[in-house]
Amino acid sequence: MEKTFTGKVWRLGDDIDTDVIMMTRYLALPTLEDMIPHAFEPLRPELAGLIKPGDIIVAGKNFGCGSSREAAAGVLQAMGIKCVIAESFAKIFFRNAINNGLMLIECKDLWDNCEEGDMVTVEVNKQVLCKGKSFPIPVIGEEVYSILEDGGLVNRMKNLDKDKMESPTFSYSNKHLEGRTLAEQLIINNTGIDCKPGDIVTTSVDMAILHDIYAPYIYNQFKSMGFDRVYDTERIAIMIDHLYPTCNDDDPRCFRYSNRLQDEYGIKYLHTSDGICHQVVAEEKYAPPGSIVFGTDSHTTTYGAFGSFASGVGFTEMASIMGTGKLWIRVPSAIKIVINGKLPKGVYGKDIILRVLKDIKSDGGIYKSLEFCGTTVNEMSIDTRMSIANMGVECGAKSALFAPDEKTAEFFGMDYDDINWLRFDDKATYERVIEYKAEDLEPYMACPSSVDNVHPLKELEGKAIDQVFLGSCTNGRLEDLAIAAKILEGKKINPFVKFIVTPASKKVYKEALKLGYIKTLINAGAMLTHPYCSLCQGRSGGLASDGEVVIGTHNRNFIGRMGSPKAQTYLASPAIAAASALTGKITNPLEYI
Amino acid sequence: MGILKNQNKTIKPYCIITDAASFEELEEIIRVNPVNKEKLIIAIDHDTPSGTVEVASKHKLLINYGKEYDIKNFTYGKGIGYYIAMEEHLEKGDFLIGLGKHITTVGAMGAVGIRVDLDTFKEVMKSGSYTINFPETIVIDIQGDFQTGVTSKDFVLTLIKENEDIKDKFVIFTNRNTLNMADRLTICNLIQNAGVRSVTFSDEDLEADLVYDLNTIETKAVLPGGFQEIVASSKIDGIRVNQVFVGGCIAGNIESMRKIADMLDGNHVNKYVRLLIAPGTSNIYEQMIEEGLVDKIMDSGALIMNQGCSACWAKSQGIVDDNEVFVTTGSFNCENWAGLNNNKIYITSPETAIKAAITGNFYEN
């Protein structure tokens, strides 16, 4: 690995998300080289053609935030970018980059002191120099350094002696640990190591969730690493949820490879038409309280709703998990979010998490564990907890946890006594505590084009809209369809509004069918799709043209994510979405519920 | 009714615009002030929800037009335009004018769908009138019943194969007691591949030019790439299948949905096959729910798509890969359809399609 190098600067701002780096519609292209021309397309379409090998990207805060797509990191490496120097990095991107042999350097001051086109010299572990000034940079941690030295994770795994590899053991003491955050309790229980925030430990992966959009890449990485079998055929689940129905040319291949992974490695669980992975995981109980689960989707944090330490990883890391059954993590410090009181009418879980994101900001939770408690939380349904945990990743959180309670126990058909070892502890150390009075909360919307650009609904009412999307792993569940059906029962939506409804899973769909919600929504004017990721991922199925205004109940409104970079996406609760479809403008649902 | 009595008459027809029209065609159409708005049907049905930004831009032209002229008969994603025309507007003996070749489908209910060019269409919208000019007519009397395993698809393929009698003509079918709506839709939709000008089913007492005894119809297959090769069904003898679609003008109706729900009940889609089912309209979807068909279909592993043209149009739903085999009840089997690869598309009946989806193998015999 080169210890000193110099390169030309390309300067980007804060919160460069991975949709901007590589849009969803290109993720199923067969190779990273195919993706290169599309790098940064929605933001700076000319940039991909200008970057030369050896160049350096300098960016602001939270570089690489958003989706877990490894291609965002892989493509930068494939383009020959020597390193990225940013004020801070999103955590999944950080790992993906290291695993692809792309060096990342945290530097608070370089961005303000350089211009595009400048030459920067990097002295690894020491400093960066630009225009005669020098800025200190941190020492790269040992684990990270060794992966970079190996040239990335694939090489590292190739070098592993597969025969001498120790399989993970899955025996846990399941005893309450005093003075610890939920994340610490989960990690200590899993590893048996008395660790603290900042420490690096290796976890045993209770369940690995991978899905269709990355199946060909996972397959190829797994093979390249030299593995010939998976660590446990019953601890891996393959989810077909993004690319079926097949909408783009590369989609059938992903369907094929999802099957291929099962056929060649004997993986027991393949869910072909059951719905969005995160909902299916809940229904199939793949992430019970106390477990540690990783998935190739950033919204894997959803399982925190059950008290599972769950987080998103890139496809290369998933391949290494499939082979070894283990993954290293840095123990996160935690932010406690306390919500007490009774929510006003018309205010839901979505509004709570949007408010939290407004206050924490998109980089305020990087690598933290968000931990939710309070009387309001105790009253929340599992659906609502999932909705909140789902969006925890949007502030960079590693996990978003709720302590399991009687509701959780009932959901999993478990005895509460068996899981109450995992609970909040008054003596635990939290980096930050944020308290909310539920009565003070109101309906919110995230405005274009970042998830933390949150404003109260009352500031936005009346704006004309073109399209409404009700669905996704954030808000496509039974209670979401229920509130929309209540608002739209016997009514017709504005005829010029495009209204797409996608239940989160087949089970949700069938339950909603029995209760009459599906019929109500179709009758009201909805296009009722099969349960899958649908429009959220912005590949097809409802893309918006220039200037269109979209309200979605999903979790990301990044530039270009809904189609045209000039479309405007607002994120909101299902109640706001349904009421707005009715009137054709952003509407307070209160009079309809 | 006397449909032929309309010859040379100037009538006030229904007009239909869908998003099958090109961007350029729509740009011209939206400049026309429609004089007969009650009879103007705008149905955005082919690529819904919009599969690309370009399609969304195209849709926007029609949406803005609908808003500007306060078009009441405007639907977005509520289903196939021709189906909506039949459900909500057309009566027996009505005329529907439009740009698309499958407009002949509405003959199934005894209306007449006439395809015109863009200039004529704009004229009709502007004036509200159209002068009927029937080409030569041929009356075909249908008698008897299909033998077991023979369907309306085989009948229409037979007609197409023997097409000299009906090419360039206006075909009127009479006496079709054994044919249900699904059969008539299949016939009226696919028959335009024989080059007919239009087609309808009439219950008038007309003298037949030709008689077909359905008893004599044999099973047939049509090979990918158009309708030039209509062959004995034995030629399709176990082809491995990748994707199956049941929907569109031919099978998006409630009769077909009942049939396939019954076949799927208790069975499972083959692991390697992608099965997409698309209800033709919102009304049909609701009826499927009422009749308990949805659970049976979903439990088999099939995907129930949103209402509309779906994977018949296949520009964004139901893309197939290089060398994949796509068995469909859609209306298109041309090269480079449903993905720009060397795939093979076989048009068939819903029954045959579902069998292929369950077994993974496609047989026409």
Radius of gyration of chain A from CA coordinates: 23 Å
Major sheet size, sense and barrel closure of chain A: 7 strands, mixed
Overall SS class of chain B: alpha/beta
Beta strand % of chain A: 15-25%
Strand order of the largest sheet of chain A: 4-3-2-1-5-6-7
Give unreliable regions of chain A as ranges: none
Net shape of chain B: globular
Question: How would you describe the overall organization of this protein?
Answer:
The complex is a heterodimer of chains A (593) and B (365). Chain A starts with a strand and ends in a 10-residue tail after the last helix. In chain A, the strands form six sheets. In chain A, strands 4-3-2-1-5-6-7 form a seven-stranded mixed sheet, covered by helices on one side. Chain A is built from 21 helices and 25 strands. Chain A is globular. With 593 residues, chain A is an alpha/beta fold. In chain A, α4 packs across α5, α13 packs parallel to α15 and α18 packs parallel to α21. In chain A, β3, α5 and β4 form a beta-alpha-beta unit. The longest helix of chain A has 15 residues. With 365 residues, chain B is of the alpha/beta class. In chain B, 29% of the residues lie in helices and 21% in strands. Chain B is built from twelve helices and 20 strands. In chain B, the strands form six sheets. Chain B has a five-stranded parallel sheet, with helices on both faces. The longest helix of chain B is centred in the first third of the chain and has 16 residues. Chain B is globular, with a radius of gyration of 20 Å. Chain B starts with 9 loop residues before the first strand and ends with a strand. The model of chain B has no long low-confidence stretch (mean pLDDT 95). Chains A and B meet through α10, β22, α19, α20 and β23 of A and α2, β4, α9, α10 and β17 of B.
